[in-house]
Amino acid sequence: MAFRSFPAEISKPTAWPPPLRGGNAARLPVNACAAMTCSVAADGNRRSKLVWVWTESRQVMTAAVERGWNTFLFRSESRSNDLANEWSSIALITPLFIDGKQLFDGQSRKIASFYEVSSPQELELFQPNTEEVDNVVINFQNEWQVIPAENIVAAFQGCNRTVLAVSATSTEAQVFLEALEQGLDGVVLKVEDIGEVLRLKEYFDRRNEVRNMLALTKTTVTRVEVVGMGDRVCVDLCSLMRPGEGLLVGSFARGLFLVHSECLESNYIASRPFRVNAGPVHAYVAIPGGKTCYLSELQAGKEVIVVDQSGLQRTAIVGRVKIESRPLILIEAKEHSGNETYSIFLQNAETVGLVCPREGNQTTIPVTSLKLGDEVMLRVQGGARHTGIEIQEFILEK
């Protein structure tokens, strides 16, 4: 948390509403942006989302500032002004004041229009071709949020105006940030519960993992052996996968193989681009936050990491998990420059494959065609885990 070394008074205008300067809206504060991927399934473009906080709780304020969100909303009344002055004396915050249908900064500059919306007619009042002020903050007053938010995203696409929505929970904030895939430009988190701040930050952290490329390692297959029956897990996602994408799975957390999805066409069975035939119930699978869990622990609603040949990752929601007894095949591989052995069990079927290095002439090798010396992609990481979280301790797995 950033602290000031001296008290700082907020120069609240003596007359409300304060006069506009030149009739133009002031620039929105940009010190409370959160980077977020706008479309994990498209081309990886990223947009920054604004997060402002509306609260009277000092604990919420502290938690927000510690997470980089330091723009706060206050009502244009004496008590709120005193609170803004108090907080500004101890933390580097940007206070904004709500007065009727307008939002001002501490220098009396108009930042945005503030609307309480409870009907479709009120929502139509600030369409892009009629609204004078560039920026809009919307406080929805009824149960309908998703469809109105989608209507706003559609109406304001391509405009330079910034639109934020007031949300009472982190879940509501997620609805606004993901409306029509692109989402609104940001949210005003109006809460008195510190947990909502923490949950919203966790949401951004999960989405921001998409920005990071995972380091994948080329390994050489050293063993291919057909074994007996086992309970294998098919993971069906709520997203479609492309050639080269799959899940990171392995018998040991220290080395996860990139198991290809069933998105490829064949003569005998239709493609299922939402599915990864991932392996038996004991295997580890990569999930957001740098964690792993057992395939047997996956269930509808849980998130996993989808990775492609180059290491580009994105999150996806599990829609269904299907466990059935099937014949298995054991595959072992080693790094080119090491002696560590990594292994995975997979169903012995032509539709199950491992992802190959990008420089090769194929995307995946079916496990039924694997032979010694073939190269496949692996994610090498720390092997010691406690409830899926990597820890530093001695561990020997074989």
UniProtKB/TrEMBL annotation:
Protein name (record): 3-dehydroquinate synthase
Assigned keywords, A-Z: Amino-acid biosynthesis, Aromatic amino acid biosynthesis
One GO MF term attached to the UniProt entry: 3-dehydroquinate synthase activity
Residues in coiled coil: none
Single GO BP term: aromatic amino acid family biosynthetic process
Protein origin, superkingdom: Eukaryota
Domain (3-dehydroquinate synthase N-terminal) ranges: 49-204
InterPro entries named in the record: DHQS, DHQS/DOIS_N, DHQS_C
Domain 3-dehydroquinate synthase C-terminal per the UniProt entry, residue ranges: 219-398
Pfam families linked to this entry: DHQS, DHQS_2nd
